[in-house]
Amino acid sequence: MPATMRVRxxxxxPLREWEAADEGGRELPLGARVSDLVAALRGDGGLPEKLLMxxxxxxxxxxxxxxxxxxxxxxxxxxxxxxxxxx
Amino acid sequence: MELVRExxxxxxxxxxxxxxxxxxxxxxxxxxxxxxxxxxxxHLDYEAYEEMALKQMRELAAQAVERFGVREVTLVxxxxxxxxxxxxxxxxxxxxxRGAAFDACRWVIDTLKKTVPIWKKEQFVxxxxxxxxxxxxxxxxxxxx
Lengths: 87, 145
Fold this sequence. Notes:
The structure holds two protein chains of two kinds.
Chain A: E1 4-11, E2 26-29, H1 34-44, H2 49-54, E3 56-59, E4 62-64, E5 75-79
Parallel strand pairs in A: 1-5
Antiparallel strand pairs in A: 1-2, 3-4, 3-5
Chain B: E1 2-4, H1 10-17, E2 24-31, E3 35-36, E4 39-48, H2 50-68, E5 72-78, E6 80-83, E7 87-95, H3 98-115, E8 118-124, E9 127-130
Parallel strand pairs in B: 1-5
Antiparallel strand pairs in B: 2-7, 3-4, 4-6, 4-8, 5-7, 8-9
């Protein structure tokens, strides 16, 4: 059994320009959580920190909390604050 | 519930919703404004995480029906490039009585603006920026923040 898995990372809105070509997804240790992936993305250093930290995360098109355990083949989306506008 | 790339036919959609038991139809027609904080807007580009946005829109409509007891909620959002005056989002709420229709309509647009994954880039005469967006509600702020 391999000790790693792969998830597909998707970036949207103001983060989209940093979306990497999908080369089979991002490798993570088995049992990694949403927070581990976010930490890994921060570690890469390429993404604007403030925007990343203001973002929500969706796993397979549903909002997910930091403690959610990821599984091989999951689609993980980093979602910057959505369009908003003044009430 | 729909994401479309062509013009939203507000009149036709509103008319199409009406049914015999309705006493009120409340419409929110969100249109492109010609400025943001005084800076002149040329056009807006909307994009979405489409699969998720559609799911969220369906859930929002169902929640509105349940929460406010309205009969039906129709929700359409346009994506791509929109110019000033064009409809970006249309919400039509049909109900037996007006109170619930107003309340549901307000709740749907306010919630949509905070939770449905759609972003807009504003093109001004002197540059383009992504709109700031609203902070996520606590129950979906899922990252390491």
